[in-house]
Amino acid sequence: MAYETIVVETRGKVGLITLNRPKALNALNTQVLTELLAASQAFEENPRIGAIVVTGSEKAFAAGADIKEMQSKSYIDAYMEDFFSGWEAFTRIRKPVIAAVSGYALGGGCELAMMCDFIIAGDNAKFGQPEITLGVMPGMGGSQRLTRFVGKSKAMDMCLTGRMMDAAEAERSGLVSRVVPAGELLEEALKAATKVADFSLPAVMMAKEAVNRSYETTLSEGLRFERRLFHSMFALDDQKEGMAAFAEKRTANFKNR
Ligand code: HXC
Description:
Keywords: Fatty acid metabolism, Lipid metabolism, Lyase. The chain has 257 residues and is of the alpha/beta class. The protein has 12 helices and 10 strands.
Protein backbone atom coordinates (compact mmCIF):
# COMPACT_ATOMS: atom_id res chain seq x y z
CA MET A 1 0.00 0.00 0.00
CA ALA A 2 1.33 3.45 -0.90
CA TYR A 3 0.83 5.68 2.11
CA GLU A 4 0.06 9.39 1.76
CA THR A 5 -0.75 10.51 5.30
CA ILE A 6 1.76 8.43 7.25
CA VAL A 7 5.40 7.41 6.81
CA VAL A 8 6.16 3.78 7.55
CA GLU A 9 9.68 2.55 8.32
CA THR A 10 11.37 -0.26 10.17
CA ARG A 11 14.22 0.33 12.62
CA GLY A 12 15.65 -3.08 13.40
CA LYS A 13 12.84 -5.04 15.04
CA VAL A 14 10.70 -1.93 15.51
CA GLY A 15 7.98 -0.77 13.16
CA LEU A 16 7.81 3.03 13.08
CA ILE A 17 4.67 4.85 11.94
CA THR A 18 4.92 8.65 11.63
CA LEU A 19 1.72 10.62 11.14
CA ASN A 20 2.37 12.97 8.25
CA ARG A 21 -0.26 15.60 7.53
CA PRO A 22 1.84 18.61 8.52
CA LYS A 23 -0.52 21.22 7.05
CA ALA A 24 -3.34 19.98 9.28
CA LEU A 25 -1.19 19.26 12.34
CA ASN A 26 -1.75 15.54 11.70
CA ALA A 27 -5.52 15.81 12.12
CA LEU A 28 -6.94 12.30 11.95
CA ASN A 29 -9.18 11.89 8.92
CA THR A 30 -10.53 8.71 7.36
CA GLN A 31 -7.45 8.25 5.21
CA VAL A 32 -5.13 8.43 8.24
CA LEU A 33 -7.25 5.81 9.99
CA THR A 34 -7.23 3.51 6.96
CA GLU A 35 -3.48 3.84 6.51
CA LEU A 36 -2.64 3.54 10.20
CA LEU A 37 -4.69 0.36 10.43
CA ALA A 38 -3.07 -1.10 7.31
CA ALA A 39 0.46 -0.27 8.50
CA SER A 40 -0.04 -1.55 12.03
CA GLN A 41 -1.71 -4.73 10.73
CA ALA A 42 1.24 -5.29 8.38
CA PHE A 43 3.65 -4.96 11.33
CA GLU A 44 1.42 -7.26 13.36
CA GLU A 45 1.79 -9.93 10.67
CA ASN A 46 5.51 -9.36 10.08
CA PRO A 47 7.45 -11.92 12.16
CA ARG A 48 10.55 -9.71 12.14
CA ILE A 49 8.75 -6.94 14.04
CA GLY A 50 8.52 -7.07 17.83
CA ALA A 51 7.15 -3.63 18.70
CA ILE A 52 5.56 -0.61 17.04
CA VAL A 53 6.13 3.11 17.68
CA VAL A 54 3.54 5.69 16.60
CA THR A 55 4.70 9.28 16.47
CA GLY A 56 3.91 12.62 14.83
CA SER A 57 5.88 15.79 14.19
CA GLU A 58 7.69 17.98 16.67
CA LYS A 59 4.75 20.44 16.69
CA ALA A 60 1.92 17.92 16.78
CA PHE A 61 1.44 14.26 17.51
CA ALA A 62 -2.10 14.90 16.26
CA ALA A 63 -4.35 17.94 16.81
CA GLY A 64 -7.46 15.79 16.87
CA ALA A 65 -10.00 14.22 14.61
CA ASP A 66 -10.28 16.21 11.38
CA ILE A 67 -12.79 18.91 12.26
CA LYS A 68 -13.23 19.99 8.64
CA GLU A 69 -14.05 16.43 7.57
CA MET A 70 -16.68 15.88 10.24
CA GLN A 71 -18.19 19.34 10.51
CA SER A 72 -21.04 18.76 8.02
CA LYS A 73 -21.97 15.26 9.18
CA SER A 74 -25.56 14.65 10.21
CA TYR A 75 -26.64 12.51 13.14
CA ILE A 76 -27.83 9.79 10.80
CA ASP A 77 -24.48 9.78 8.91
CA ALA A 78 -22.60 9.42 12.19
CA TYR A 79 -24.90 6.72 13.51
CA MET A 80 -25.15 4.65 10.35
CA GLU A 81 -21.41 4.56 9.74
CA ASP A 82 -20.81 4.12 13.49
CA PHE A 83 -18.41 7.06 13.21
CA PHE A 84 -15.06 6.47 14.97
CA SER A 85 -15.73 2.76 15.61
CA GLY A 86 -12.98 1.95 13.09
CA TRP A 87 -10.41 3.01 15.68
CA GLU A 88 -11.26 -0.02 17.80
CA ALA A 89 -9.36 -2.17 15.30
CA PHE A 90 -6.19 -0.31 16.25
CA THR A 91 -6.60 -1.37 19.87
CA ARG A 92 -6.77 -5.01 18.78
CA ILE A 93 -3.11 -5.00 17.67
CA ARG A 94 -1.52 -7.62 19.92
CA LYS A 95 2.11 -6.55 19.60
CA PRO A 96 3.24 -3.73 21.90
CA VAL A 97 2.55 -0.22 20.61
CA ILE A 98 4.31 2.82 22.08
CA ALA A 99 3.13 6.39 21.43
CA ALA A 100 5.93 8.96 21.17
CA VAL A 101 4.22 12.31 21.68
CA SER A 102 5.74 15.66 20.87
CA GLY A 103 3.66 18.86 20.74
CA TYR A 104 -0.12 18.73 20.58
CA ALA A 105 -2.03 15.55 21.35
CA LEU A 106 -5.55 16.94 21.39
CA GLY A 107 -8.97 15.33 21.12
CA GLY A 108 -8.58 12.29 18.88
CA GLY A 109 -4.80 12.79 19.08
CA CYS A 110 -4.84 12.33 22.85
CA GLU A 111 -7.26 9.44 22.39
CA LEU A 112 -4.99 7.77 19.83
CA ALA A 113 -2.03 8.10 22.20
CA MET A 114 -4.13 6.49 24.95
CA MET A 115 -5.02 3.58 22.63
CA CYS A 116 -1.31 2.73 22.57
CA ASP A 117 0.18 0.61 25.36
CA PHE A 118 2.16 3.43 26.88
CA ILE A 119 3.05 6.99 26.11
CA ILE A 120 6.51 8.53 26.13
CA ALA A 121 6.24 12.31 25.93
CA GLY A 122 8.63 15.01 24.87
CA ASP A 123 8.88 17.82 27.42
CA ASN A 124 6.99 20.03 24.93
CA ALA A 125 3.95 17.74 24.79
CA LYS A 126 0.46 19.10 25.41
CA PHE A 127 -2.50 16.84 25.99
CA GLY A 128 -6.14 17.82 25.96
CA GLN A 129 -9.73 16.91 25.19
CA PRO A 130 -10.94 20.21 23.73
CA GLU A 131 -14.08 18.78 22.06
CA ILE A 132 -16.26 20.77 24.46
CA THR A 133 -15.00 23.96 22.79
CA LEU A 134 -16.43 22.61 19.50
CA GLY A 135 -19.85 21.95 20.99
CA VAL A 136 -19.31 18.21 21.33
CA MET A 137 -17.56 15.74 23.63
CA PRO A 138 -14.81 13.12 23.24
CA GLY A 139 -15.80 10.36 20.83
CA MET A 140 -12.76 8.11 20.48
CA GLY A 141 -12.42 6.99 24.08
CA GLY A 142 -11.44 10.21 25.86
CA SER A 143 -14.14 10.13 28.51
CA GLN A 144 -13.37 6.47 29.29
CA ARG A 145 -9.63 5.99 28.83
CA LEU A 146 -8.57 9.38 30.22
CA THR A 147 -10.62 8.70 33.36
CA ARG A 148 -8.85 5.38 33.83
CA PHE A 149 -5.45 7.02 33.34
CA VAL A 150 -5.83 10.13 35.50
CA GLY A 151 -8.92 9.60 37.66
CA LYS A 152 -12.31 11.28 37.69
CA SER A 153 -11.42 14.73 38.96
CA LYS A 154 -8.73 15.47 36.41
CA ALA A 155 -10.62 13.76 33.58
CA MET A 156 -13.68 15.89 34.34
CA ASP A 157 -11.49 19.00 34.46
CA MET A 158 -9.97 18.16 31.06
CA CYS A 159 -13.25 17.18 29.36
CA LEU A 160 -15.39 19.98 30.82
CA THR A 161 -12.97 22.91 30.56
CA GLY A 162 -11.08 21.72 27.48
CA ARG A 163 -7.80 22.87 29.02
CA MET A 164 -4.47 21.38 28.07
CA MET A 165 -2.12 19.45 30.32
CA ASP A 166 1.61 19.89 29.87
CA ALA A 167 4.08 17.01 29.89
CA ALA A 168 5.01 17.41 33.57
CA GLU A 169 1.36 17.31 34.67
CA ALA A 170 0.71 14.37 32.33
CA GLU A 171 3.53 12.42 33.94
CA ARG A 172 2.48 13.42 37.46
CA SER A 173 -1.05 12.22 36.82
CA GLY A 174 -0.11 8.92 35.19
CA LEU A 175 -1.12 9.72 31.62
CA VAL A 176 2.42 9.24 30.33
CA SER A 177 5.03 6.78 31.52
CA ARG A 178 8.02 9.06 31.04
CA VAL A 179 9.01 12.52 29.83
CA VAL A 180 12.20 13.05 27.87
CA PRO A 181 13.76 16.13 26.24
CA ALA A 182 11.79 16.81 23.03
CA GLY A 183 14.90 16.50 20.87
CA GLU A 184 15.54 12.98 22.15
CA LEU A 185 11.96 11.73 21.97
CA LEU A 186 12.18 9.49 18.93
CA GLU A 187 15.53 8.05 19.98
CA GLU A 188 14.21 7.28 23.47
CA ALA A 189 10.99 5.75 22.14
CA LEU A 190 12.91 3.58 19.67
CA LYS A 191 15.28 2.55 22.45
CA ALA A 192 12.36 1.49 24.65
CA ALA A 193 10.66 -0.30 21.75
CA THR A 194 13.88 -2.11 20.83
CA LYS A 195 14.28 -3.23 24.42
CA VAL A 196 10.76 -4.67 24.40
CA ALA A 197 11.27 -6.22 20.96
CA ASP A 198 14.38 -8.07 22.16
CA PHE A 199 12.36 -9.94 24.80
CA SER A 200 10.28 -13.03 24.10
CA LEU A 201 7.46 -11.87 21.83
CA PRO A 202 4.86 -14.30 23.20
CA ALA A 203 5.78 -13.29 26.77
CA VAL A 204 5.48 -9.61 25.83
CA MET A 205 2.15 -10.16 24.09
CA MET A 206 0.75 -12.11 27.03
CA ALA A 207 1.90 -9.44 29.48
CA LYS A 208 0.13 -6.82 27.34
CA GLU A 209 -3.01 -8.95 27.23
CA ALA A 210 -2.96 -9.42 31.01
CA VAL A 211 -2.51 -5.71 31.78
CA ASN A 212 -5.32 -4.85 29.39
CA ARG A 213 -7.54 -7.48 30.98
CA SER A 214 -7.26 -5.65 34.29
CA TYR A 215 -9.48 -2.95 32.84
CA GLU A 216 -12.16 -5.38 31.78
CA THR A 217 -12.65 -7.69 34.73
CA THR A 218 -12.70 -8.13 38.51
CA LEU A 219 -9.47 -8.48 40.50
CA SER A 220 -10.02 -12.17 41.26
CA GLU A 221 -10.79 -13.03 37.63
CA GLY A 222 -7.87 -10.88 36.48
CA LEU A 223 -5.51 -12.64 38.88
CA ARG A 224 -6.74 -16.03 37.69
CA PHE A 225 -6.29 -14.95 34.05
CA GLU A 226 -2.76 -13.76 34.84
CA ARG A 227 -1.86 -16.98 36.58
CA ARG A 228 -3.15 -19.16 33.73
CA LEU A 229 -1.12 -17.15 31.20
CA PHE A 230 1.88 -17.37 33.50
CA HIS A 231 1.52 -21.14 33.72
CA SER A 232 1.37 -21.37 29.93
CA MET A 233 4.75 -19.69 29.71
CA PHE A 234 6.42 -22.84 30.97
CA ALA A 235 5.64 -24.28 27.54
CA LEU A 236 7.84 -21.63 25.90
CA ASP A 237 11.41 -22.30 24.80
CA ASP A 238 11.98 -18.69 25.78
CA GLN A 239 11.18 -19.46 29.43
CA LYS A 240 13.81 -22.21 29.42
CA GLU A 241 16.31 -19.90 27.72
CA GLY A 242 15.58 -16.89 29.96
CA MET A 243 15.95 -18.81 33.18
CA ALA A 244 18.98 -20.81 31.97
CA ALA A 245 20.67 -17.57 30.93
CA PHE A 246 20.11 -16.13 34.42
CA ALA A 247 21.53 -19.23 36.09
CA GLU A 248 24.52 -19.28 33.73
CA LYS A 249 25.13 -15.51 34.16
CA ARG A 250 24.81 -14.74 30.46
CA THR A 251 22.50 -12.68 28.28
CA ALA A 252 19.37 -14.50 27.14
CA ASN A 253 18.95 -15.13 23.46
CA PHE A 254 15.20 -15.35 22.98
CA LYS A 255 13.94 -17.16 19.93
CA ASN A 256 10.35 -15.92 20.32
CA ARG A 257 9.04 -19.44 20.57
C1 HXC B 1 -8.64 19.89 11.02
C2 HXC B 1 -6.93 21.14 11.87
C3 HXC B 1 -7.10 20.56 13.14
C4 HXC B 1 -8.13 19.60 13.30
C5 HXC B 1 -5.50 21.99 13.26
N1 HXC B 1 -5.93 22.01 11.99
N2 HXC B 1 -6.20 21.13 13.98
N3 HXC B 1 -7.69 20.79 10.82
N4 HXC B 1 -8.87 19.30 12.23
N5 HXC B 1 -8.34 18.97 14.47
C6 HXC B 1 -5.41 22.82 10.88
C7 HXC B 1 -5.83 24.29 11.02
O1 HXC B 1 -7.14 24.46 10.54
C8 HXC B 1 -4.80 24.96 10.16
O2 HXC B 1 -5.16 24.78 8.80
C9 HXC B 1 -3.55 24.12 10.42
O3 HXC B 1 -4.01 22.86 10.93
C10 HXC B 1 -2.64 24.75 11.44
O4 HXC B 1 -3.39 25.00 12.61
P1 HXC B 1 -3.39 26.41 13.35
O5 HXC B 1 -4.63 26.48 14.17
O6 HXC B 1 -3.16 27.53 12.36
O7 HXC B 1 -2.09 26.28 14.27
P2 HXC B 1 -1.82 26.97 15.67
O8 HXC B 1 -2.29 28.41 15.65
O9 HXC B 1 -0.40 26.69 15.98
O10 HXC B 1 -2.78 26.22 16.74
C11 HXC B 1 -2.55 24.85 17.04
C12 HXC B 1 -3.79 24.26 17.77
C13 HXC B 1 -5.06 24.55 16.92
C14 HXC B 1 -3.91 24.87 19.15
C15 HXC B 1 -3.54 22.76 17.93
O11 HXC B 1 -4.83 24.10 15.58
C16 HXC B 1 -6.28 23.85 17.44
O12 HXC B 1 -6.91 24.27 18.41
N6 HXC B 1 -6.73 22.81 16.71
C17 HXC B 1 -7.96 22.09 17.01
C18 HXC B 1 -7.78 21.24 18.23
C19 HXC B 1 -9.06 20.50 18.55
O13 HXC B 1 -10.11 21.10 18.84
N7 HXC B 1 -9.00 19.19 18.50
C20 HXC B 1 -10.14 18.31 18.80
C21 HXC B 1 -10.84 17.94 17.52
S1 HXC B 1 -12.28 17.00 17.82
P3 HXC B 1 -5.22 26.04 7.79
O14 HXC B 1 -5.72 25.42 6.52
O15 HXC B 1 -6.10 27.04 8.39
O16 HXC B 1 -3.79 26.49 7.70
C22 HXC B 1 -11.72 15.46 18.14
C23 HXC B 1 -12.62 14.37 18.56
C24 HXC B 1 -13.95 14.50 18.06
O17 HXC B 1 -10.61 15.18 18.04
C25 HXC B 1 -14.88 13.67 18.82
C26 HXC B 1 -16.23 14.24 18.89
C27 HXC B 1 -17.19 13.73 17.88
